[in-house]
Amino acid sequence: MAKAAWVTGGASGIGAAVARRLSEQGYRVLVTDVDVTGGERVAAEIGGFFQRVDVREPGDSLAAVEAATHEFGGLDLAFLNAGVATGFGLEEGFSPEAYRRVMSINLDGVVYGAHAAIPALKARGGGDIVATASLAGLTATPFDPIYGANKAAVVGLVRALGPLYANENIRVNALCPSFAETAIITNVRDALLGAGVPLLDVSDVVAAFDSILAGSGTGEAWFVQVGRASEPFAFRNVPGPRTPAGDKAPSADASVQANLGEA
User: Fold this and answer.
1) How far is CA 159 from the centre of its chain?
2) Over the stretch 86-103, which tens digit does the pLDDT of each residue have?
3) Which of 44, 46, 112, 157 is deepest in the core (most CB within 10 A)?
4) What CATH number should be reported for the domain whose range is 4-257?
5) Where are the chain's structural domains?
């Protein structure tokens, strides 16, 4: 039986490129997006099928997984890729409506997508969730702080979900590309090139996605940077708790203690 994949933001850019690669690898692919024309075109090209999904709506993600299960008999992979550029800070251009829109697409969309996909992956005996974050989620992003905040949240979510679902044979990882040659950078492309920032080819991001699937890790954030081999970002643990000399340290569950930090 062919494996089944669900790709959000699949009408263009990284989502479309990954959908094509998955089809080449024998997956049956559900392409979802708010761009109906582009999504239908990609789905027709790869022999998959399209469903309109607004990732801000939890019911849309649930309906997508239901459709994939009906069409394909199950779900093995969810690529939660839908995202938008932010382009404003906390002063000029800021409004609660604009803020909620980008946070809802870039963060809530991953939460709702994972919530919808996990039961289907469990029913399959395991599978993969890959969420598109960004290098902006691994470092300070003063030129776009709201974007940095939602992408850092995606990284934090993935790092927590990985160990949480490891015993269910569900791997959860993040794809963290630098600036790639896609429509999301349209408004800043000239500024990036003028500043000498090299742009990733989308094929480099797809190759990193392949590396994630080929790996065995979970809860990892794979950086994708021009001229470098993609690999999981090496996070350093936070400093761990210490007790005054002579005091008995409180006991803690080993799995919890392991995440409390370095001694």
Assistant:
1) 11
2) 878 899 889 999 999 999
3) 112
4) 3.40.50.720
5) 4-257
